[in-house]
Design brief:
alpha/beta, Rossmann fold, five-stranded parallel sheet, 5 helices
Length: 123
């Protein structure tokens, strides 16, 4: 099995580093960045299998980043995260092409189930 690459995007540095470490332990190759701008720069430079991105970020939020990301890589698979159970941004993220919106605090079992499904569909 080829190494699966995941880009994590969250302005909460501690959470991004924690998720990075958990993904690496589970066998994924993860890279964490802390802004939408950095995510777009990273996506333009390197191939990733999946992007996991927070919706609420300063400057370029997750939905705006997703819209721009889809212009660069229309087939990129994106899972969005949010700390807010309801809200327009979640539905906007899905309309913009996110495959799923997961709630914080992250249920890692659910996240890994989603990731495994996405990876299998891509093989």
């Amino acid at each position: 099995m080829m190494e699966k690459k995941i880009l994590l995007v969250d302005d909460n540095v501690t959470l991004a580093e924690c998720m990075h470490d958990i993904l690496e332990i589970k066998g994924y190759k993860a890279k964490a960045v802390n802004s939408g701008k950095d995510a777009l720069s990273e996506i333009a430079k390197k191939p990733y299998d999946v992007v996991i991105m927070d919706i609420k970020m300063p400057e370029l939020d997750g939905v705006c980043t997703l819209i721009e990301l889809k212009k660069i890589k229309p087939d990129m698979r994106v899972i969005m995260m949010t700390g807010f159970a309801s809200g327009d941004r979640s539905s906007e993220a899905l309309k913009a092409g996110a495959l799923e919106v997961i709630l914080k605090p992250i249920d890692f079992e659910k996240l890994f189930t989603s990731l495994n499904k996405l990876m299998k569909n891509n093989e």
